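Re: weekly structure request thread

Next one in the queue (97 aa):
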Amino acid sequence: MSAGAAGAAAAAAAATVQAIRACGVIVKMDPEAFCEIVAREPEPLVVVGTAWSLFGSKYRYLVSHKGLAFYCETPDVIRLPENTAIIEAKTIWIPGS
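Done, posted below.
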């Protein structure tokens, strides 16, 4: 590996670490556990984004609960409680995902 490539790889790793620090703790969950977290909130606010790939679309969901961010990714749309406020994001980027 050349010095330039090694430097670029180190810079990318440092950027990812910095992004994780800026985002705080993000807990990745399966869709069922994510829905349980959403149900615990009296007035949940969920951010929803869609990612496209060669294998089809994936839906990404993000919610905050007691100071932590909970995230899940699924090929299926999740049915959220009626009282859920939904923000549709262009994309959701999770460091290291």
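The chain has a mean pLDDT of 82. Strands lie at 26-28, 45-53, 56-65, 68-74, 85-88.
Next request, please.
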